Amino acid sequence: MSTAETLADSASETLPDALREEIRLLGQHEAHPRAACIEALQRVQREFRWVSDAHLREVAGLLGMSAADLDGVATYFNLIFRRPVGRRVLLLCDSVSCWLMGRERLEAHLSARLGIRPGQTTPDGDVTLLPTVCLGHCDHAPALMLGDALHGDVDTQKLDAILEAAG
Amino acid sequence: MARVTVDGIQVEVANGSSVLQACEAAGKEIPRFCYHERLSIAGNCRMCLVEVEKAPKPVASCGYPVMDGMVVKTDTAVVRKARRAVMEFLLINHPLDCPICDQGGECDLQDQAYSYGADHSRYAENKRAVKDKYLGPLVKTVMTRCIQCTRCVRFATEVAGVPELGATSRGENMEIGTYVEKALTSELSGNLIDICPVGALTSKPYAFMARPWELKRSDSIDVMDAVGTNISIHARGAEVLRILPRTNDEVNEEWMADKGRFSFDGFRRRRLDQPWVRAHGKLQPARWQDAFVAIAHGLQGVHGDRIGAIAGDLCDAESMVALRDLMVSLGSPNLDCRQDGARYDTTRREFYTFNTSIAGIEESDALLLVGCDPRHEAPVLNARIRKRYLAGRYPIGVIGHPTADLTYGAEIIGDRPAALTGLLEGGLAFAEVLKSAKRPMIVVGQAALARDDGAAVLAACWKLAESVGALADDWHGFNVLHHAASRVAALDIGFLPGRGGRSVAGMMSGGVDVLWLLGADEFHPARIGPDTFVIYQGHHGDAGASRADVILPGATYAEKPGTYVNTEGRVQRAFQAIMPPGEAKEDWRIIRAFSEVIGMTLPYDNLDAVRARLTEVNPVFGVQGLPRFGSGDRSGPAGDVAALGNAAFAPGIGDYYLTNAISRASPTMQECSRVYTQPVVQAAE
Predict the structure, then answer these.
(1) What is the tens place of the pLDDT at every residue in B367-393?
(2) Do B685 and A67 touch (CB under 8 A)?
(3) With contacts defined as CB-CB under 8 Å, which chain B residues touch A69?
(4) Residue B612 and residue B406 in contact, taking contact as beta carbons nearer than 8 Å
(5) Per residue in B414-462, pLDDT tens?
(6) Do A53 and B685 touch (CB under 8 A)?
(7) Which chain B residues are Cβ-neighbours of A67 within 8 angstroms?
(8) CA of B158: which chain A residue's CA is closest?
(9) Alpha-carbon gap: A60 to the closest alpha carbon of chain B (Å)
(10) C-alpha pair distances (Å), B208 with each of B8, B193, B211, B338, B516
(11) What are B533's strand-pairing partners?
(12) I need a surface site. Which of B122, B256, B262, B621 has the fewest CB within 10 A?
């Protein structure tokens, strides 16, 4: 089984009824249902880790938008994933402060340790490595996020510790 | 009203207008790419920057509302510098491949680069390249040229009502595309070509054909439907290379349907370019004189009431009045233009025209469609309905075949005449909607009239219009929607059975001995009796010509000057764009020439005289424009409401892309038909 197959298993499932209902309510809460689209996409992503074509179409229908319109929103934001990601997403800041403080070394270390380049997922579907714009943690550069946790002053040792602790 | 000073010129514009509109009112030209007056405002190209006094930096005039006392400057050093900077950004990723781009010569980016472009680029990095998209057989894409103005996205979403286009990603990676790779399912898709300010969306059939300055432009009228879209035919030499819409706010705004825009390649295929006479069961090429003699021979000894004539859907008024006059001189009462067998009452014009007028749709506040599919029968008119729908509070009811998406929300009330009875008796909820509306509209289509109880349906619709208050002194909400371009003119001329005359059905199966078909192709020729002598006058070797004993080669609408009356009853003139091929001739001249052969010379021998004759037959042909009117006489058309049948209304036209002899001969339309109307298995996404 390839990485893509490991990750994409849930893509064609329809959204669970509870989630559909939740998204519908999110839309009802707004004057224009489409105003809830970002939150709805986030909800789908929390459930399925990424937003598949089928799910995007379903959400568009629930919020009275066209799929093309919603895809415009989904692709606009970096953190709405329109392709499968692993169980954990590692966002490595690539802004100037982190770059000055040696983020390239971290990237090389990660690539060596995990065997993937930025944008790829480990074959076991565990970690996806993505570069990200400034995390706002420049005073503790270089910075990264693993899942929802922000880590600063990262060096290779700390990086190993973070990966092992969360793994 | 707000008073605004633009470059020292005082103008007054309505509150809520944009600065750009104020500048235009002052006669100042503002460069723009994303702004389009018939679409929503996006404000993303930044080309329309102007200086507004007291504003700290230049403002995008398209999206900036005016305020009373505002002072605007459109041509200062700051404005010029800002626009130059915007242009430099736009050109960073533009390929500058003008020599191989079809937009060259009529490109907004090219034109404005003359005013605001630099003579060289400071950008030495690699330019971005974008994969082309598939938008169907009509629109060619070169997405690398796209400047992301999103006019196409807004057009598809707002006007065409098919929200299939979108802009994905952000910044430099932004791309326009269909969400799923597939042809854009709209009958108005050709307008994307006009609306694109650069060469990203161009015409596929016109690709690499010509430069705009090589083309001769002739004003004409589209005859592919009965909307009467104002068009401009662009030809080089003897060949039509493209057709574009002309702006007419009362009819088509600036839109045009795909069939009218792209079916012209049918002009050069299956053409009848010389007369033919059937000898020993086989059609043989002949000279004009021989063809006329053969017809005269066929007419010999035939009594007037055994002669008949049928006018087709694409005829000009001139040829129809000439043929009618010829038939009258031959003593024939057998005339008909209703190939589909529709029932009309022609005692008053308001019984068969679109009385609200197309522009009037925007003033209506409720709509009932009876037996019509405006999306396919009149796509441009449908865009007007959608425009009204988008303005809000516009309930729409449909009685008829539940067809595909009309591009707006409509309530299906019923599929058979019983629903009309229900509305009349108030048993259906929609009756209340119509009654409470101040300016309701009822639109009756041909599918409702082309049936045995057509007269009853017509009468019922009028009665309903009267009872819900659609007929008032200042409002006429009763409308008939035609889809044959010649139909209203034919009814105005009286191309209908005279006293004791036969209709189309009566002329079939040997009902007449001699039958003159003027471009009539919309019935199965086998219905004509085997012993009937058939004359086919027309431009294409279609159904009618195959059955003919004599073929007289006529001209298409592009090859003759003609008068057409649209579904509203608006009389419009078309000019000749190209010469008819071979020996083909202008149609009324053929009839006039033949009348001389049999010694019944028609009393006109130039175009002005024929048109004078038209006005004599019906004064409406002398009326310019279309004054809006309310309803005077409230008495309805003949027809017994009690005679309403129970059969469901048939669907409207079958295949939108192949409705007449020209479009059936067009390879482009055949390809569209293959792509759009035949079910294809969708590839897995």
Answers:
(1) 999 999 999 999 999 999 999 999 999
(2) no
(3) 157, 163, 166
(4) no
(5) 999 999 999 999 889 999 999 999 999 999 999 999 999 999 999 999 9
(6) yes
(7) 166, 179-180
(8) A66
(9) 12
(10) 45, 14, 8, 41, 42
(11) B514
(12) B122
Check CB contact of B40 with chain A, cutoff 8 Å: no
What stretch of H or E contains B310? strand B307-311
Residue with tokens 């001389």: B596
The average pLDDT across A137-147 equals 93
Tell me if A93 is assigned to a ligand binding site.
yes
Tokens found for residue B447: 């599918």
ipTM metric: 0.84
B212 lies within 8 A of chain A by CB = no
Q: How far is B58 from chain A (nearest CA, A)?
A: 27
**Strand B475-476, strand B276-279: pairing:** unpaired
| Domain extent listing, chain A | 3-76, 88-166
**Element (DSSP H or E) covering residue B443:** strand B440-445
Full set of structural domains in chain B with CATH: 2-92 (3.10.20.740), 355-481+628-653 (3.40.228.10)
Is B170 within 8 Å of A71 when comparing Cβ atoms? no
Q: Are B191 and B135 in contact (CB under 8 A)?
A: no
Q: Does B167 touch chain A (CB under 8 A)?
A: yes
Residues of A in contact with B684 (CB under 8 A): none
Q: Do B168 and A71 touch (CB under 8 A)?
A: yes
B320 interfaces chain A, CB cutoff of 8 Å: no
On whether any CB of chain A is under 8 Å from the CB of B168, the answer is yes
Pair of tokens at residue B294: 């053969």
CATH 3.40.50 fits A3-76, yes or no: no
B164 in contact with A, Cβ within 8 Å: yes
Where does the pLDDT of residue B633 fall: very low under 50, low under 70, confident under 90, or very high at 90 and above? Answer: confident
pTM for this prediction? 0.92
Residues in chain A: 167
Q: Which fold has domain A88-166?
A: Glutaredoxin (3.40.30)
Distance between CA atoms of residues A59 and A57, nearest Å: 6
Output the DSSP codes for B449-504.
Answer: HSSTTHHHHHHHHHHHHHHTT-EETTEE-EEEE---TTHHHHHHHT-S--TT---H
Tokens found for residue B443: 């639109």
Is residue A134 a known part of a binding site? yes
Residues B374, B376, B379, CA angle at the centre, nearest 5°?
Answer: 70
The rounded distance, in Å, linking the Cα atoms of B491 and B354 is 13
Coil, helix or strand at residue B203: strand
The strand pairing partners of B217, in sequence order, are B234
Contact call for residues B45 and B112 (beta carbons, < 8 A): no
Residue A68 to residue B166, Cβ atoms within 8 A: yes
pLDDT at B682: 46
Interval B506-517: pLDDT, tens: 999 989 999 999
Per DSSP, the residues of B217-285 read: EEEEE--SSTT--EEEEEEETTEEEEEEE--BTTTTBT---HHHHHGGGGGGSSB--S-EEEETTEEEE
Residue B98 phi, psi (nearest 5): -50, -40
- Answer whether A69 sits within 8 Å of B685, measured CB to CB: no
Euclidean distance between CA atoms B166 and A71, whole angstroms: 7
Tokens for A104, please give them. Answer: 């390239």
Amino acid found at B4: V
* Amino acid at the residue B250: E
* Residue B185 contacts A, CB cutoff 8 Å: no
